Hints:
The chain has an eight-stranded parallel sheet. The chain has a three-stranded antiparallel sheet with strand order 7-11-10, covered by helices on one side. The protein has helices at residues 13-21, 35-48, 64-73, 87-95, 107-115, 137-147, 161-167, 190-198, 221-231, 236-243, 246-251, 276-293, and strands spanning 2-4, 26-29, 53-58, 78-82, 99-104, 121-124, 130-131, 152-155, 173-176, 204-207, 215-218. Helix content is 40%, strand content 15%. α1 (13-21) runs parallel beside α2 (35-48) and α7 (161-167) crosses α12 (276-293). The chain is an alpha/beta fold. It contains twelve helices and eleven strands. The structure holds ligand TUI. Residues 8, 31, 58, 60, 82-85, 103, 105, 109, 124, 130-133, 213, 262 line the site of ligand TUI.
Amino acid sequence: PVFQGGMAWIADASLASAVSEAGGLGIIAAMNADANWLRDQIHELRARTDKPFGVNVMLMSPFADEVARVVIDERVPVVVTGAGNPTKYMKAWNEAGIKVIPVVASVALARLVARRGATAVVAEGTESGGHIGETSTMALVPQVVDAVDIPVVAAGGIADGRGVAAAFMGAAGVQVGTRFLIADECTVSEQYKEMVLKANDTSTRATGRSTGHPVRALKSPFTNAYAKSEAAGVSVEELGAMGTGALRKAAKDGNYEEGSFLCGQIAGMVNERQSAREIVDDLVDGAEHVLKGACAWVA
Ligand code: TUI
């Protein structure tokens, strides 16, 4: 029941294959990459594992249309979508036999994609890193569970067995991003990993609300500069230009000054480097432990 979040510039074949080998659902993030990059990553993953995996299609990507074709051509078993409304692709994906699992931040989008044949939805709370909605995981998940008759995967603020156990009060699974940032198989920059390991409960902030695309990241020179520009009323276009490239600078170059280190609020609890297998095992074993103890609360 553990999905690995489709983190842009981070969730590649290395991380996704390790998570799938460990019994989770590894997910390659297509992010803003083109069809050739994605095809190579899928082939690399398949060379490392024969377990099921997913591709995250970031719907704001300029390459979303070609990426949507690649997942069909490559017979990808699961497609997770994010940062938009995926309905224009869902008929073709369903006809290709792909399990389509949109990430939603609202009940309205959950209902819409359920009507269009989604296999499940990921209900992602505002605790998450990256592009976020406004509603917290605690409030969003049960409302989505009540609104749709397909399985709901909870995301946002989950990084250990306690979070998994809490999510199971309604959800059928969890999606975890932040904790996998420090996985041995995660190819993100050392700078990024160090920042996650050092983070505490107040280390992240959301910027970009004025653009309609709020994004949560670790506080850094970039988030300070961005927030200042936003408060000064800099245009949405200029803010967009500031964001361009900042993700890559964080994930690949480890550029502290200019990078945007996307990260969830739960980073304060992520303190130990581990393999993807150790992380998946700890999430599942930890949940089992908590759930067994939970009967102490009932007569
Ligand atoms: O997509 C994410 N998280 C992301 S995507 C990303 S890459 C990026 N690059 C530049 C700008 C923005 C993002 C980094 N992190 N999570 C899933 C998610 N989807 N969270 C929120 C939503 C969402 C929000 C509004 C989905 C749909 C939506 O509206 C749909 C509509 O009705 O148009």
